[in-house]
Amino acid sequence: MMRPGELGEILVSREEIREMTRRVAAAISRDYEGREVLLVGVLKGACVFMADLIRELTVVTQIDFIAVSSYGKETKSSGVVRILKDLDEDITGRHVIIVEDIIDSGLTWSKLRELLLTRGPASLALCTAFDKPSRRTVANLTVDYTGLEIPDAFIVGYGLDYQGYYRELPEVRTLRLEAR
Ligand code: PRP
């Protein structure tokens, strides 16, 4: 069976991902020492990073997931985040850390943040495996925990997809779209 596109070079290796995950988990564990955290993975891309991250944390942790519509890809200027699957947990008074695979324009996070703040968490932070700061359209967006900053190349793997494929790759690779 053919998948769309053609895999290119490895941009982030398994070893770099392992180091990145440990570094981020250590920072979170240090910052939240003595507190309980609720990690919220944004489906679907965050599932791989989430699974790695929770196993490196030393703080008391629960997990939850949320799914939101990806309006940001077509209409860059407007819209509220549409919840496709809401949280199971009540986040009122809790220390919440959103877990993303990638921050690109920043639109998803800025809208999701507004929404979650209305629910009164004790704190709300953002943790992303990868960040493409050159793609940002939202001004003054704070990323609390960043695994790796990456250039603006089309990438797949480690949760990141193209048309639903390649999420299972253990490393991050570029994808060439012109070839097949
Ligand atoms: C990706 C990623 C973020 C968002 C980031 O999700 O997981 O949620 O895009 O982009 P932004 O900063 O420009 O808003 P996607 O919509 O691809 O869904 P997926 O996780 O199911 O692949």
How is this fold's topology laid out?
Blueprint: E1 6-12, H1 14-31, E2 36-43, H2 47-54, E3 60-68, E4 83-85, E5 95-103, H3 107-117, E6 123-131, E7 145-149, E8 155-156, E9 172-176
Parallel strand pairs: 2-3, 2-5, 5-6, 6-7
Antiparallel strand pairs: 1-9, 3-4, 8-9
1-O-pyrophosphono-5-O-phosphono-alpha-D-ribofuranose binds at residues 42-45, 70, 72, 100-109, 161.
Produce a short descriptive summary:
The protein contains three helices and nine strands, in the order E-H-E-H-E-E-E-H-E-E-E-E. By secondary structure, the protein is of the alpha/beta class. Helix 1 packs across helix 2.
How would you characterize this protein structure?
The chain is of the alpha/beta class and 180 residues long. It contains 3 helices and 9 strands, in the order βαβαβββαββββ. It has helices at residues 14-31, 47-54, 107-117; strands spanning 6-12, 36-43, 60-68, 83-85, 95-103, 123-131, 145-149, 155-156, 172-176. The strands form 2 sheets. A 6-stranded mixed β-sheet has the order 4-3-2-5-6-7, with helices on both faces. Strands 1-9-8 form a 3-stranded antiparallel β-sheet. Helix 1 packs across helix 2 (47-54). The radius of gyration is 16 Å and the shape is globular. The chain starts with 5 loop residues before the first strand and ends with a strand. The mean pLDDT is 93. The structure holds 1-O-pyrophosphono-5-O-phosphono-alpha-D-ribofuranose. 1-O-pyrophosphono-5-O-phosphono-alpha-D-ribofuranose (PRP) binds at residues 42-45, 70, 72, 100-109, 161.
